[in-house]
Amino acid sequence: MVTECKHRSCDSPVSQLLKKTSEMSAMNRKLIQSLAETLSKEVEHFNKTEVECLIREFNVLLGEPTLPVRAAHGLDRGAFRTILHNMFGMTDDMIMDGVFRTFDKDKDGFISMREWIEGLSVFLRGTLDEKIKYCFDVYDLNGDRYISREEIIPMLKNSLIRQPTEEDPDEGLKDLVEITLKKMDQDHDGRISFEDFEKTVREENLLLEAFGTCLPDMTSIEAFNQNVFQKQLEQ
Amino acid sequence: MGVSLTKAVQWTSASSGTGKLEFTPMNESLLKEILRFVEQFNSQHPQEAKHVFEEPLQWSTTLVASDFKTDYDISDSDVQSHEKDSEGHPLLQLSPPNVYARSFSQLSKLIHLADDKKLEEVRACLEGNRDPMVKILGPSLTSVLQKGGAHTEVKEEDQGEDSKVKLFLLLQNMDNQLLNKCLKEISEQVSLNPAAVKNEVELLKRLCSEGEKRVLKSVRYTSDYEFSNGCRAPPWRQVHGEICYLVIEPCDTETLYITRSTAGAFLNGGIKQEQEESGYERTSDTYKDLVTLLTSRSPHFAENINKQDFAVQELPSTQKIQHVESVDAEEQGQPQRSYEQQEKNVHEKARQQHAPNKADGEKKYEPCPRWKNLGLMPPCGKAEEKKPSKSSGGETSGEIQKKKLGPAAKSKMKAEFSVSSLPGRLSSQKIKTSAGAVPVDAFSESSSESEEEEEQPERRAESTTDLPSEYWEIQKVVKFLKGGDQTATVLALCAMMDFNLMQETCQLAIRDLGGLEVLINLLDTDEVKCKIGSLKILRKISHNVQIGRVIVDMGGLQSIVKILDSSVKDLKALAAENIANVARFHRARRTVRQYGGIKKLVKLLEGDVEVARCGALALWSCSKSTKNKEAIRKAGGIPLLGHLLKSPHENMLIPVVGTLQECASEESFRIVIQTEGMIKDLVKNLNSENDELQMHCASAIFKCAEDKQTRDLVRKYKGLKPLVSLLSKEDNKELLAAATGAIWKCSISMENVDELQKYKALETLVHLLTDEPEDVLVNVVGALGEFAQIPANKAIIRKCGGIKSLVNLLTGTNQALLVNVTRAVGACATDMENMAIIDQLDGVRLVWSLLKNPNADVQSSAAWALCPCIENAKDAGEMVRSLVGGFELIVNLLKSTNNEVLASICAAIAKIAKDKENLAILTDHGVVPLLAKLTNKTDDRLRRHLAEAICHFCMWGTNRASFGDAGAVAPLATYLMSNDKAVHQSTAMALYQLSKEPNNCITMHQKGVVKPLIHFMGSDDEMLQEATAGCVRNIRTLCLANRQAQDQ
To answer: If I label B7, which of A153, B104, B688, B777 is the partner at 20 to 30 A Cα–Cα?
Structure first.
């Protein structure tokens, strides 16, 4: 569709602009293909076509770059949270921030195209090992390689329905945190190290997302596959 | 009042020391009766009312000094009556809260003073004075008088005692009135008579059938003699209310010796035979009826009684209503509960009123499965069990009290439990989505009624004081389950997994705290992780059958069946694993089938290996119900199982072969197992290292080898050798039973016997004849019976000492075993040397006495065995005559209704009749008319041996004419039309003998025997030729003689 415009000879300012963008698209397409070529070799779980689809999707999500400077930055926190919410049904702010932080490897506050593809590789198709690392990072709010009591409490705060009758509404929460720590803190140092986390999850896979849903469920993965990979290929 | 007070009135459990009267309508009416008696005493019997008691009646009263008026000295709170005894002691004395009264006039006055509290006063008085007779009249007189010789002995007493005697007579009169009142009330409500007991026993006897539905092994009376009143207990025991004694063999526990009395049923000291002097003492609690007793003694009975669809399942109408209500939603929980409570009380009261004399009326509630399962059952059985019957007597009140402490503690505990589970129920409503759930506390209460846990409440009662620490931790976790989002729920589920879920305390705590309900609710959500977690926990706790029942009751099994459709592998596997655990009782298996679970499980067999394995496990559990076997077959499960049978993994093979083995009880299944070529794989796995797998394979072959082709296949695939080598695993009795069973069935084919003998199977089998359990012995002996069809093997059995072992087994009681033993003995007896040993061991007498066995199979098998014994024994005639009562026994069986028995007896009689002296004796016993009566039977096997017997009996006296007179000739003539050659031969021989009597010839001629006889003359069988020729000749001679006579 876009390529057809290239062959038209128009001189109006509008068509000038169109021509310019289509030239850009043409250039982009080549660029995308070569980028996809390289990235698919570096990132697990996606083939070249899929990477290409992801790049396109990234561009769509990013919107038409008006300023080249902004384009370099990628998705900001707000945009990414909207994506997580709309595409993967996530609601918890704290967890979504954690996911953003985990995707944003260079910690520049934006998710670049590479970060997007690398992140989704684990997010959508990660092995158990990869997912353990990913989840641990999401829950390790301050990035000190430990999940401490202070980090768990806010994450689980909204998990319990408050009993209005209870004297101390947070008592249940404290109990829950203690029970969880008791189970996961394998070396008994009062906090959950990566080793603790990994060992516990290997024993019981259900504990992978122990402190909140940070991975998509089957339905959203399928919806994503459908929308991003298959539809684009059909075009 | 003595008797009625100690026996009829019921005392409740007491804190200790003094008893308390239970608040029952019966007690209430008795109290009123006593009150009226005391009230009127002063006016009606002024003289006796003044009589001073030996000891004051003392009780704690609610009356205070101010209640007393004139005639009393009042000082502060104390009161004394003006009336004093000869020594100046006041006849009434009050020092609050105690009051002492020493005459009826004082009692009478006091009652008047008490006004509206008088009933309470009488109650308190009776509670305070457990034996008022002794206090009033003194111990000596009481005991003298109670012996009944009152009038004569007391006359000698002086005048002063006169009023005392009168008083006694009045009291006794009163007592009689009270007793009559009690009896009237009791008899209005129930009537227990020997007929009712007889029905009950008949009912149980029907449960002894073979096969899957078998609930009991055997039920028999110790005495066959029934007195004219319907009792079987000897008269001197009938006095104690005992009706009969029973010996009941449950399937799973030791034999029970039971006394059935008017008071109920209880275990006795082991009365085995009639006229035993000992063993009458009661060795267990008294149960209201036999079903209740068996339910508490035999878990197998308890489980299977529900499957029986006999008349006992009727529901009284009120309880039906209750059931309907319980299906409704939660809002009704509360009212329903109180209603239930009421019901319970009513039943409790009713029971207390007439604890003795419970009969079939009550029993009707007992095995109603639906009602029971909903947990709404009043604790009939329990209450009865705890309450020793009053009329059986002999118990001191102390004993009663001790026993009563049990239920009191229990009910206290129940209360605690329902309180603790109440908040759980409230909060669980929030996440409750599915309808039809029953409040949790209804179940925690019902637990004590469920028959599996007869022992349960006792154990828990002890632990109420200190609940295990896990209980509180589980409570916390359950709270998170109830009030948490997905994340918290998963955390709680994982925390729950850390408890020792195989431990009963944890399992029951989860149930009691409402955790089970939430776990089941989670199964209906969309959260995969929650479902997985829940199923992982349920899979553990459902090992407990009680939990399994609750899961089914709450509709959890339906949800689990639904999950089988999931696309998530783990979920499918877990769901199937849960079904494997839960489907251990009939109702659960039915539920699986009704919700399409069998089809879904069969489908699992096609997919992932682990999922298929779990599917096979579930099918294995389900296949214990006949209808499920059919459903598995219809769903195409057999070829899939056949495919999995090729798996190299033991953990896959065990459930697969287990299912096949279970299903092979069905003929249709056996055919497919054979046609699908599974015998080969079954044989292959006989060589496995795993005992369990070997056992199931052998068991499957055992069942399938009824079929000849299968037997041949087992040989073809070289399965006989491994089967023989399994015989060495003597420690594993289950395996041994399966292996010997397979060998038995395979040995029905003689080619297999030859093959088996290459591995010296016979020697090993004979070796197994000693010290093995009965289910092994049945198979071993069965196999010997087949092996002994080959002459050489008979000698081997003898040389290995098998004859002696076999003869020893003739004294057993297991009917299946006896059938096989007699068959084997019979087969061995065809060898003269064997026969000599059998004779020497008195084996013939033992076989003969088995004719007394009530089982028709045993009777016929024994009779068949007698034939070769009589034929081959030395001095057989003399030996038979030496058996006391032997002739009567065998002649009597000619009245049997079973054709096989009749055929075998005819055969045996024919053998016996070869001895002239015995023939004469048998004729005297009236055998001829009995045989004549049987001639109209159509069974060929019977006809053959009957004709043979008739043939032999013709050789004595006027028997030929007697047969003719009895009308035996005409039906016998029709035997010639039979298709059975053996019938032709014996019939022709009989006709030949009969034709020696002219009248018989006329009958034969009329019946047109000549034509078929002439036809048989052309037979190859010389015996037949001769007999027919002889017969025709006799008819012809008569004819000629007749013509000559006419000519002259």
So the answer is: B104
